[in-house]
Design a protein that fits this description.
Layout: H1 2-75
Length: 82
Amino acid sequence: MIQQSYSLHLLARDRVNDLHREAAEDSLRRAARAERRRAAREAALEALKAEVAELERRATYAWQSRQQREGAHASGWLRGAP
């Protein structure tokens, strides 16, 4: 009777240890997935920021070019006027 009780105790303890280990592994997997998702979001955000910076640079260049052309037309510089 005592032997059977002790065996059940050992089985229960082993099961509890297994459940603890599985829970810890699950937590690590969830944390790793969350970190990968966070890193992917950060990378996407950085890519968007770079794209916005490039679009702003192009827009600024286009605006400056237009301003120069309009200024040149207004002064007659492109027509060869003195």
